[in-house]
């Protein structure tokens, strides 16, 4: 699932994991219906947004953010998948309102979203990318552009920088005033969620079964820590055997990096074991070859409701790019805040006004 597991934070761990897995794989043959309330909220947010929202107030906005994301992608490539994941985590909790960027107020007993357990390992590179972009935008267009819009644009930029589509981002979001860690867990899928659980969650956001499969394709880049898939390698679903739906070569490679107990907690593995640094449609072909990393990834091929979409996208990169662009636009409209009654325009994305 798109953001159920973390991106890497250790470049050495990343290098070791990717090298081991790719070498071992290539030594052989290479290979529910949405609620009316949710739909209304999503569609209303969609109508409120527009591509040219800042055409007069900050006409150079996209170029300003692009200068930062291009530099970040070169200096710290993990900024790409990390920021895309950050955008997902933001939109699924309280809507796309940059509430994920808020820091807990010193002395407060109410922790902010980013302090929730499931968000603890959101990569610092993502937060840094948004912070740097916001600083540059504020220097040119002070008090005009929301952190929520900057995050949405940055996520798009990183998709494109990694080889994916460049799609227009609708703007006009305000930053949210609510950020509570207690609201996170029930709104973010886990690495072992069932397809039914995923569908129920996506439907609750006004997203469809197809959106679930398409947005999961963001796992064409990015990495996950062992703890999120180790149960597939040794004692799957309470058995003493590995998940039968995992390729034998991938199983061997992952076991070398991720022991059943102990091991380095910083070790990660790529979601896409064939082209881990390229935003393409190989993720879906990997699922057909039983090389999905997470249980939620592989489940998309195993479930008869999602399987046809996986198979179609595995065959057609252009179709995936078009569908992904549309799904990101749709997700970016979830729970949009507008006006001072419901939102704010933060100067520092980590602090309320």
Task: Provide the descriptors you would attach to this structure in a database record.
disordered N terminus; two-stranded antiparallel sheet; mainly alpha; about 45% helix; about 350 residues
The quaternary state of the protein chains shown equals single chain
Residue ranges: pLDDT <50 for 5 or more in a row? 3-13, 27-43
Cα-atom radius of gyration? 20 Å
Order of strands, main sheet, comes to 1-4
Shape verdict: globular
Helix content: 40-55%
Most strands sheet: 2 strands, antiparallel
Number of strands: 4
Structural class: mainly alpha
Beta percentage is under 5%
Amino-to-carboxy terminus distance: 34 Å
Cofactor: Ca(2+); heme b
GO molecular function: heme binding; lactoperoxidase activity; metal ion binding
Disulfide bonds: 58-141, 91-96, 147-349, 226-258
Binding site for Ca(2+) 2: 220, 272, 275, 280
């Amino acid at each position: 699932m798109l953001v159920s597991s973390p991106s890497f934070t250790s470049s050495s761990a990343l290098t070791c994991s990717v090298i081991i897995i790719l070498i071992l794989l290539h030594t052989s043959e290479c290979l529910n219906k949405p609620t009316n309330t949710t739909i209304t909220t999503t569609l209303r947010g969609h109508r409120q947004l527009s591509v040219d929202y800042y055409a007069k107030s900050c006409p150079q906005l996209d170029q300003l953010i692009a200068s930062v994301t291009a530099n970040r992608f070169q200096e710290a490539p993990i900024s790409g998948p990390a920021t895309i994941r950050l955008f997902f985590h933001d939109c699924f909790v309280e809507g796309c309102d940059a509430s994920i960027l808020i820091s807990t107020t010193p002395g407060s007993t109410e922790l902010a979203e980013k302090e929730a357990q499931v968000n603890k390992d959101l990569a610092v590179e993502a937060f840094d990318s948004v912070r740097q972009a916001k600083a540059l935008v504020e220097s040119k267009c002070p008090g005009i552009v929301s952190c929520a819009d900057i995050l949405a644009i940055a996520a798009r930029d990183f998709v494109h920088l990694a080889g994916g589509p460049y799609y227009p981002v609708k703007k006009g979001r305000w930053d949210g005033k609510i950020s509570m860690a207690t609201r996170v867990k029930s709104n973010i899928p886990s690495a072992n969620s069932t397809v039914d659980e995923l569908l129920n969650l996506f439907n609750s956001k006004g997203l469809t079964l197809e959106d679930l499969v398409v947005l999961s394709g963001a796992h064409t880049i990015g990495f996950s820590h062992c703890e999120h898939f180790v149960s597939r390698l040794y004692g799957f679903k309470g058995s003493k055997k590995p998940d039968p739906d995992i390729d034998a070569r991938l199983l061997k490679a992952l076991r070398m990096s991720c022991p059943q107990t102990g091991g380095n907690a910083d070790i990660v593995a790529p979601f896409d074991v064939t082209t881990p640094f390229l935003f393409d449609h190989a993720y879906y072909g990997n699922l057909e070859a039983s090389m999905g990393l997470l249980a939620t990834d592989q489940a998309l091929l195993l479930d008869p409701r999602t399987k046809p979409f996986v198979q179609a996208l595995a065959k057609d990169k252009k179709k995936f790019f078009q569908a992904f662009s549309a799904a990101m636009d749709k997700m970016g409209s979830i729970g949009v805040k507008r006006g001072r009654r419901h939102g704010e325009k933060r100067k520092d994305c980590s602090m309320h006004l």
